[in-house]
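Protocol step 4 of 5: obtain the predicted structure for the target chain.
Materials: sequence only (see below). No template structures provided, no constraints applied. The aim of this step is simply to have a reference model before the mutagenesis design in step 5. Sequence pasted as it appears in the construct record:
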Amino acid sequence: MKIQEALNLANEAELDLVEIAPDSVPPVCKIMDYGKFRFEKEKREKEQRKKRQIIELKEIQLKCRIDTHDFNTKLNHTLKFLAQGNKVKVIVKFFGREMAHTELGAQLLDRFAEGCEEAAVIEKKPLLDGRNMTMILAPKKTK
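Step 4 output (structure tokens):
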């Protein structure tokens, strides 16, 4: 149908001529109320934004000489972060002569990963970076 004929039909019905698919040949148009069309389109976009999940990177810092209760507290915080769908960066800080025993930090991170293995996957293995050893945990995918 020609554009002028479609515009005349839309004017007679007191509605708008809305272009639905401008890329197709010929372009697809529809006679409808444009305000209602725009409202429904915004509503669909808002629903899509609600469903989109934003993943944050939370950080947990440990020391080489951490006590059992403190370790469990940090582990519980990490499990909460993972349950919320956030990634967790676990850092072990070395002070002074602890740098000579970085294997203790690696063992601590391995123990930490074992405590989180039901809720997390190791995204980045423990890596020594200066005076810090870091590891990144990501939440497991749920069906």
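Step 4 remarks: The chain has four helices and six strands. The CA atoms of residues 17 and 31 lie 5 Å apart.
Proceed to step 5.
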